[in-house]
Amino acid sequence: MRIVTIVTATVVSAGMLAGAPAAASVPVTKKPGPSFTTTVKEGRKAMREGLRATGSTSGSIALVSNGRVVWSQTFGRVNPAGKRPSRTTLYGVGSVSKVVTTMAVMQLVDQGKVSLDAPVARYIPEFAMQSPQYKQITVRMLLDHSAGVPGTNFSDLWGPVPIPSYVDGVLSGLRNSRLKTTPGAMNVYCNDCFTLAGVVVERVSGMAFQDYVSANILKPLGMKRSRYPTSVPPAGTVAPIIADGKALPIEITNAFATGGLMSTPEEMARLATVFTNNGTVGGKRILSSSAIRQMAVDETATSLRVGPPSFLRYGLGWDSVQDPALKSAGVLGWTKGGDTVDYHASFAIAPDQELGVIVLGVGRGFSSIAAETVAQTVLLKALVETGGIARMPKQVSGTPGRGQVTPKMAKAKIKQLSGTFLAQNETKKLSQANKRSVKVATLKDGAWVRSPGRFELRNDGAFWSTTSPGTSISAVKAWGRTYVLQRSLGGVGTYYSYVARGQKVRSGGALSPVWQERVGKKWLLANESPDSFTWSAAAPVVEIRSIPGLSGYLLATGALVDTVPFDATTSENTGTMFLQIPLGFGRDLLDFDFTMSGGEEFLSFDSSVLRPEATVPRLSVGANNVAIGPQGLVQWYTVPDAATLTITGQSDWKTFDADFSLIGSGDGTPATQVVAAGSHLAVFGAPGSIATVVVE
Predict the structure, then answer these.
(1) Is 635 found in the same domain as 572?
(2) Listed residues 503, 533, 550: the one ending a domain
(3) Which residue numbers in the chain have pLDDT < 70?
(4) Three-state DSSP class for 95?
(5) Can you state the angle between helices 265-276 and 97-110, rounded to 10 degrees?
């Protein structure tokens, strides 16, 4: 299936925010009456190139300056018939929702009802984790990603209809989870932290989260169309993915506080004015100036981090309170990106220059990184035309020389960098290529696959790519661990981005016979709602795999978890998360727990429960009665031979091919499905419900 991407972008701004910008590297000039002619021209170009490069079919962009929309334009189509998107078309803003959630918390701080440095458990008595240190987690730690919470509960996260039980699932999953770092020690991106922040708002205000935000943020700002979808939005109001001539079902993110807001570019522009006008919009005080200043503090400045400052400089709710593209122009900027499965966003403002940008997109070829590049381009061009900067910042380039590298230096650095490096969804092996170079291999389907080119040691002590200009790697030691630090050109190419891509892991103990038996086995999802997109967007399977050349550690792989390393030597029944990588590559880690029930070894992580494929029964010819047990778990069956299935009873069902790709589904009404040999059937229902499957 060819996926086409829909993009929307808006540039927003308003009044001045007091505060010292970064030291100017570009001379500042003043010129009255900007026309934004060049900005519009370059904005159109950036959007069209972004749409073309990602196969997208629609886009929209708006520029706001001094609280006024000075340019708005749409591109392409939002339905198969060719209808253009309008200024009122809604898009999911993804994790840009975190800025709104933080605003809600800070309003309660302004009212003296919440303290940023008070324990979360004070406001959520039922919040608990297996690690007793969870009691040390403060509200501030939720908002700056330093709580140590594992990451994201993906169970029932996305679907075509709202799934109200999502938040309860997060709290339940956390009760069964450990902390991965000491609270406050390390900033690692965490979605579940913002779900908890949303619960804090509910508990303190006495209102449902979405109702609080609507009453206290959206309505006062005149954001009349923006919403958290508690019901399916009316047809034609939300931009869909267009694929193979069809509009796909609208994606609803059930983690409202984390990434569930739907909005328009021009309404998000109103949100930006809160930060560019010192908290007051249209004579209404939304946030105190103190709250805005606290949100803009670099929370990574005093916590543990690896290497030079990353492009991620977390504030409260913000991804960066020192946007590197704007910093390269001597301008203070705040940015927040967001990605769901379908929607992608970048929200960026230059508060002291009264400018901002929101870029929103729908499609699986787009990303928040692509959206951010468009936003940076528009902001920098607008800054030139408003006189905020005299000219565009220079592009960074150049590779250090080779002459000062001695054989002794090369040998030592190659030794330090050689080894296996693990991260969330990334498994790489670095080894010597020649006397001054290393090669990289990535683990794919159980085998190491050599990447093109190599990394050559240069005069600056880093290894520079021979195939990716501007990219280098080096080994960095911190807190008794060794990380591979990657430097690469970022965004519009005016700065370098630094990030720890993996943690070096040496072989541990031998696997026990119990763990050896699990390697190569699969477990099937058993407790997800039938309305979850998980069933259609990903194979509902987790497989345990080994890492060649690295004993004691295993991988849980599959679309449900991506690829998560764990330590298999600490317990025979728990695969233990152990990586501690700051910022993005240490996110979404898990403990994997195995328990026996009814002769089956179940796998659980977060709030997900999976049953072993090995014990799934076969459907027999004739009538098969399917009873849902007391826990309401999905009942799985295999179809050994090609057959016609007739399914009756008050149960949802889904059929999958041999590779667990969805091929059919039903909602409790009698239906017939033709399936090939090796197919699978999943039957859903309330505890005690019965379905009948006739195999012919």
Answers:
(1) no
(2) 503
(3) 1-33, 302-305
(4) helix
(5) 40
